[in-house]
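Lecture notes, unit on protein representations.

Consider one protein chain, 261 amino acids long.
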Amino acid sequence: WAVAACTIFLLLPVRSFVVAPAEVVPVMPMPVRAPIAGTIASMAVPPNTAVHAGDVVTRFDRAVLQSERDAASHELEVAQARYSEALQGGMDDPKVRSEIGPLQAKVGEQAAELRRRQWILDHADVRSPGEGVIIYDDPADWMGRPVERGEKLALLAKPDSTRIAIHIPSAEMIALADNAPVQFFDDLRPDRPHRGHVVFRGYFPETSAQGVESVTLRADLDGNPIRLGTKGEARVLGGRRPLILWLLHRPIFWLRPWLGL
C-alpha cells in the first residue's frame, strides 16, 4: 500500500510555475532621439526625472558646432564680396561679367549652408517631446560620447505603469501559454501580489546584467499602475503535469547533455 500510495501521489497533476526577477517598465515609451550628429556634452536631467514638453534633456558640445557655423558665415561673406566685385567690374569687362552667374549661385549655396549650420546649432539642446519621466542609463556614460542623427538618447514615459518585464533564466524556463497567468510581488509590498498575464515573450535568450542567459517576458497587471523601476519577483504559472516530472525538471535539464537526450 505504501508503494501504491507513493506512486499515486507522484502522479498527481500539479500546476508548474517559475519564479524570476521582474521590474515595472513603461508600456509605450516615446524615444528621445538626437536631431543632429555630434558629441554629447551632458545629460541635462538625471534618470527617472519628471519633465515637461520643451524641457532640455541633453546638451551637445557646442564648440565644434559654433566653429562650423562661424566658418560657414565667413564663406558666405567671401562669396558675397566676390559677387559684388564681379557686378562692379562686369560693366566693362566681358570676362568678369561671365562670372557673375556662377558667383551668384555660390552665394546661394553658402547662404543655404549657413542656414543649415545655424539650424544644427539651434538644436544643440535636445528638448523633451512631451510630459513624463526621462529614462536612460548612467549619465557618466553619455558624457563625451559621439552620436549620429536619429540615435536614441533616452525614453520618455509615464511615471507609473501596469507592465512588468520578467527575466527567466534559460535553465529554469518551462512551457508557458501565450497569456500565462502572472503574480508580481513587488519589494515594497510583497504581501499584496499583483495579478496579470503574459503579453509578450522574447524569442531569443539575452545575457542579463548578472551574466545569466535569460528569456524576457512582459506581462500586463490588473489594477492600479505602479511606479516605474519598482522591482520584485514574478511567479509565472504554466500547465499541469505529474508531480514527479515537476520534481525531476531541473535534474533532467542538467543530465540531458550527459545522457544524450
